[in-house]
Amino acid sequence: MQPAEVGELQFEVSVLTEPKPLEFASPEDLLSKLRPHLDGVILNLNGRRATFLPQVWEQLPDKVTFLDQLSQKAGYGPGEWRKSGTSVLIYQVEAFKDSSPSANRRVSARRLSAPLRPGQATSAGEQPSRRLTLNDPSRLPGSTG
């Protein structure tokens, strides 16, 4: 990355809720309980784990494809998530995404779930007041000057 490219960077920070087990009786039951665009998923397969943030649903909106890709991320083949012994945890995020291509960046919030805990997250209708500012692009790692 060159210092001139800093203005083109986009940032997103995701604050995750505590993962909670998702109980399911069968692969079909699991599919029926997943909530695309809301749930982040941690897949546990034979001691290996992999996760996708809720934002991944934007690229993989089909539930089967989502879980097949997550299974592959864990080092197994597509469909391995259907086997017995599979466990799933779900979580939600509050995502803060930069919304302007400039060195003085304003960060906007996009709530993908209910608040993390009462009183911790902004309530509906409140505008976030967080800013991410890059004061000196030349101080970034790998920059010259």
Explain how this protein is built.
With 145 residues, this protein is of the alpha+beta class. It has a single domain, classed as Hypothetical protein ph0010, domain 2 (Dna Ligase, domain 1). The chain has helices at residues 27-33, 63-73; strands spanning 12-16, 20-21, 40-45, 48-52, 87-91, 93-98, 104-111, 131-133. A four-stranded antiparallel sheet has the order 1-6-7-8, with no helix packed on it. Strand 3 and strand 4 form a beta hairpin. The chain is elongated, with a radius of gyration of 19 Å.
Blueprint of the fold:
Layout: E1 12-16, E2 20-21, H1 27-33, E3 40-45, E4 48-52, H2 63-73, E5 87-91, E6 93-98, E7 104-111, E8 131-133
Low-confidence stretches: 113-145
Order of the strands making up the biggest sheet: 1-6-7-8
Query: How many helices does DSSP assign?
Result: 2
CATH domain class: Alpha Beta
CATH overall fold name = Dna Ligase, domain 1
Overall number of structural domains: 1
Q: What does the main sheet amount to?
A: 4 strands, antiparallel
Straight-line N-to-C gap: 13 Å
Give the CATH H-level superfamily. Hypothetical protein ph0010, domain 2
- Structural class given helices, strands, pairing? alpha+beta
- Summarize model confidence as the mean pLDDT: 78
Shape designation: elongated
Order of helices and strands: EEHEEHEEEE
Total E-strand runs: 8
Alpha-carbon Rg, integer: 19 Å
Helix content: 10-25%
